[in-house]
Design brief:
There is one protein chain. The strands form 2 sheets. Strands 1-2-3 form a 3-stranded antiparallel beta sheet, with no helix packed on it. It is 0% helix and 47% strand. By secondary structure, it is mainly β. The two termini are 12 Å apart.
């Protein structure tokens, strides 16, 4: 299954993805690198290097991490 779209929802404090089988979300609290009010998510994208089966997010500090579809 491939991820088609990703969004960082700061109001709900969750990453939201869409795939052909439905929509899923993952709370920021479950991430390895947790965003904070001082270190927000700068960008998030579907990572084609990981076969479109994971997303990568980058924080304002420059640190980045990837989350596989199975975590959602």
């Amino acid at each position: 299954m491939k991820i088609t779209k990703v969004n960082a929802n700061n109001r709900k404090k969750a990453l939201e993805i869409e795939s052909p089988k439905g929509s899923y979300s993952l709370p920021y609290s479950k991430l390895k690198l947790k965003p904070s009010p001082r270190n927000k998510i700068k960008s998030v994208y579907v990572d084609s290097e990981l076969g479109n089966e994971a997303i990568t997010y980058v924080l304002d500090s420059g640190k980045e991490d990837s989350v596989h579809l199975d975590a959602f």
